[in-house]
Design goal:
This protein is an all-alpha fold and 161 residues long. The chain has one domain. The protein contains 6 helices and 2 strands. Strands 1-2 form a two-stranded antiparallel ribbon. Helix 1 packs across helix 3. The chain is globular, with a radius of gyration of 15 Å.
Length: 161
């Protein structure tokens, strides 16, 4: 008699120590006074899923939603944590390439759907409420799809870092 088991879902929280996670979450909260702590944690978790998935992919461009981008910004500000995380993930360093906000850009809905599918394929559950192309928290930029160094230099517009 054979049994089947459901695929195991990856735990994004395990990508950082509790102290590191709390530090990144605190950075999100400082940038968004009055934000609920539970929402802050959800944002950081989605940013971790995004980075883990993007670092592990060799093809296909990904981009965060405006809200998830808020968590990615906070993670990047913790440079040692971010560098260590991307090194442990064993993939490509996920560069941050900001552009002026443009939610009407025709690529945005498609790239967000692709990114969510990639995150699911990587074994994570997606918090769909945080992946809408709508309003952002406090971040004042939007990103071209995340891509590796060579591809970015060849195909992505680079704004101020």
């Amino acid at each position: 008699m054979s049994t089947t088991t459901a695929p195991r879902t990856r735990d994004a929280r395990s990508l950082l120590t509790p102290v590191q996670f709390a530090g990144v979450a605190a950075t999100v909260q400082r940038a968004n006074p009055g934000m609920d702590a539970a929402l802050t944690e959800r944002i950081v978790l989605e940013a971790l899923k995004f980075v883990a998935t993007a670092a592990g992919r060799s093809s296909g461009r990904m981009a965060p939603s405006p809200v998830v981008d808020e968590g990615w910004h906070a993670l990047i500000l913790h440079t040692r944590v971010y560098a260590d995380l991307t090194a442990r993930l064993g993939g490509t360093f996920v560069h941050h390439i900001p552009q002026p906000p443009n939610p009407a850009h025709p690529q945005v809905p498609g790239i967000l759907a692709y990114t969510q599918a990639a995150i699911r394929s990587a074994g994570f559950e997606v918090d769909e409420d945080l992946w809408r192309p709508g309003p952002r928290a406090s971040a004042e930029c939007q990103h071209v799809p995340a891509c590796g160094d060579t591809e970015c230099e060849a195909n992505c517009e680079s704004g101020p870092n």
